[in-house]
Amino acid sequence: MRYRRLGRTNLEVSEIGLGGSRMGGRNNERPIEEGVKVVHRAMELGVNFIDTAPLYGRGYSEQIIGAALEGIENPPFIATKLGYLPEGFDYSYDTCMRCFDDSLKRLRRENVTLLQIHEADRAGWEGVFGKGKALEALKAIRDEGRCRFIGITGYDPDVLADMLETGEFDSVLNFLHYDLLGQAALRKLVPTAAKLDAGIILGSPLHMGVLTARRDEIPAARGRLEDEDIRQRLAAVLAILEEYREPLSVAGLKFLLFDERVSVAIPAAERPQEVEENVAGSGDAPFPASLRRKILSL
Question: Domain span at residue 98?
């Protein structure tokens, strides 16, 4: 496992982290013990950054992580979120504070490393920066010593870039806008984060599972393949990668990690084998520069 600096936090994080959205299964059908195995296998392989949220499994992901880290002397860095709850969006100060208290109980911790506004682009400027809103709660929690750093997450890379420009946030997590199938985050978000020395975290780096299947077994209805543009881009990417023998998931992660500005990619996993497949994306052999140029030119 290779490690990278998470921006101005100066934390050295594994370049492959663990996304917590599926460790309890798609419908919380997997017992906690199975999720604990996922976390422990990730740690054995050098993963030291785990991202979760109250939304994931309606708190079940946080419960699994809490159980997995019970009694661990040197636990990994833990990132969680607030503002997007199973019952809906609420970025008010009081709800954010209650949300975080509940997260700590599930995680069995007194603090976390990184606390993020979940889908800050949905919250909008007023929901993040308004009086009695999410940023005010994050700062209060940080001042209390219950988190070390604060960040934002979301889908729209341009909105996130504008929020980063305020200088308030230590990191940004974007999903579905920087992977083999699209790189809109390169237009503004990644340069802005690099300029401000904010850590760059890539969620869903395998495009919601589209890039985890064997190349000859990608089901037509998987992930976002109902989108005609995604289908066309996938076909073009597969044509470019025809002579590249790595599994598609490894190709997807190495493509991202070629970019030294990226701090950590956090693919989700619900079985230890998936963790092993994801960690294979970290290694000495970089993604071929010639293939990367072709994909970026699509």
Answer: 3-296
